[in-house]
Amino acid sequence: MLSLDDPKWRELQGGYKTAYDASPALKRMERGEDIWDEFWQELHHQGDVGEASYAAVPHLVRISKTLAKRDWNLYALVSCIEIERHRKTNPPLPGWLADSYADALRELVELGTNDLKTVCEQYTVWSILGAIALAKGELKLGAFISMCDESELEEILEETDTWSELYE
Length: 168
Fold this sequence. Notes:
Layout: H1 23-30, H2 36-43, H3 51-65, H4 72-85, H5 98-116, H6 122-135, H7 139-147, H8 150-158, H9 161-167
């Protein structure tokens, strides 16, 4: 995991394909500040992510583990970064980050599994399920769960004859 004091942060690109040093915001998150809007703005932009996005993931998971309660932002943002990481126009995951990134995804499965025991809010449940699928290597399923909204799911189910016969 890249130390938050490492000067390398200043060289990493975020979602706008420009330098974004995520370490100050991650430090603010450690102090309890709500910085999700900044992360959504800087780590992902219209399908683009960068090395700063990847380097932030282990810290997002590490910091979130200390919180009494996590919301959809953690799961949805990590899912978004993981989905977009596979886009050909985005940079590959750097080798120096591969182990801590993979460890963070494994820890996210554990967090999500525990959070599913108590969470009831629909978007959080869907975000957790999508993140778990992605962390388990199920890119298409994870992307479907993460990106599909309820109206799209209803449309798919309505097209399935079995669904309408059994549940309407």
